[in-house]
Amino acid sequence: MKRFLVTYLAPGSVIDEWKKTAPEKRKAAEEKMQSDWKKWMSDHAHIFVDKGAGVGKTRRVTAQANAGARNDIMLYAVVQAESHEAAAKMFEDHPHLGIPSASIEIMEIHALPGM
User: What does the buried/exposed string (b/e) look like for 10-46 if buried means 16 or more CB atoms within 10 Å of the residue's CB?
Assistant: First the structure.
């Protein structure tokens, strides 16, 4: 089995707008998504090597600076599958895709000797 890094993304602008939603409407939608997410995770538990976690604020380090930055990555996980296509297909119905403009990226992990 091959291993794949999965990143769950949503544009920062979408998240910023969502935070402006009325609290009662937002709470109900978030509870539904959490319930759908838990069911999806339970149904697909066998594919996970590392269920991952949410990620926080970003720091970008370049040769010129070490500074705060922003990207669209919200969470990550590591899964196993026979192929890249098979791994991607498993995520086609993921609840994360209910977030406007959200996406899920799946990248094969290649071992690097000596690292």
Answer: beeeeeeeeeeeeeeeeeeeeeeeeeeeeebeeeeee
Q: Residue 25: beta bridge partners?
A: none
**What is the distance between the terminal CA atoms of the chain, rounded to a whole angstrom?**
21
E runs forming strands in the chain? 2-9, 48-54, 58-61, 66-69, 73-81, 103-108
Q: What is the pTM of this model?
A: 0.91
pLDDT digits (tens, 9 = 90+) for 9-38: 999 999 999 999 999 999 999 999 999 999
Q: Residue 50's beta-bridge partner residues?
A: 78
